[in-house]
Model the fold of this input.
Amino acid sequence: MRKLLNIFGGFLLLLLVSCGGGGGYSGEQGPTTKLRMTPVIDEITMAAGTYADVARISQGVRPYYVMTTQGAIEPQLLSDGTLRLIAHGPTTEEAEITIQDSTVGQDSIKFKASAVRIPLNSSVGGTVNIEPLESKTITVTGGIKPYVNAYSEDESVATITGHNGVYTITGKKPGAVTVHVVDSAGTTLDIAVNVKMTDLAVSPSISGTVVAPGVINFVITGGIGAYHVSVVDPAVADAAITGNDLSVTVKTAGTTKLVVTDDLGNQIIVDITGTTAASLAVSPSSQKVCSGVAGSYTFKITGGTAPYTASVSGAPFNVEPVDANGEFVVQMASTSIVSTTSTYSITVVDKSGAVRNVPFTIEIGTTACP
Done:
């Protein structure tokens, strides 16, 4: 037995080689002019829907004739003597293939051939999970080629395109749908497609409040594609998106809504509130100290709009910068001496330009400061 190794353009599942039948070349060595098949085939099994160039026919007397007992397997002789078998479909029983020449005795070679159906199958099995606007390429094998149709039961959820066993499934919107590939025998391969996505959301919350003017920042997640934003009342706020970051600039006191949308049209509403800042205030609102007595005096700023500044002119003491907590310190030294009781005005200013003056009095010759 010799195995056939040279197969062109098809799939052979099983190939057994031995001496051919009829009066043709029987495989013996040495010169001969008898009808010859190289290599010699006894039996061959193919996949239905494929073809294979299985041997070469030579010698004998041309023209050659080829015959089959099963229409499911069609033998063809190419101009160069190549014997091609085309398996149009599965055979119900073995076909006998006969090659005959034109000698007086009509030498012939015979062998058995059969074709089996390979089930339709895909590279992803029976299920595909994708997001909207995502595409996945799959390959389909088996069945009877060519594949004559590929379709989706609902193209608003997912589509399938392609040919020759290579197809692309594309998600359109969240949902579930079945796509189908049909072969030449009418057999259908079903693939379940699940189109899922994460819900559109903003964090840290779907609302924000800030003292106007001010800025609120959000992060957008979920949805599909690029994000877009519109402001219901642009007089209250402006908004801009960079990637996943949403920045809202509140221009004045009031309320408005932002509509955040993804490329599929999914929306989420964000409530924005601009408030008026509390009046600028400083505690304590005034301070009295004794001349020439060292000490530190802390003041706390509230209301208004940070950042704040605190300053004084012509005073014998120092005012330190306002810290992040809205506090500042006045440092009195033993050299902070006045000849008469004197009051200095510490000026506190917020971001909006609001001003609060804090009287700082250095006493001398009083009951508290003799």
Observations:
- The chain has no helices and 33 strands.
- The chain has a mean pLDDT of 88.
- The longest strand covers residues 108-116.
- The two ends are 130 Å apart (CA to CA).
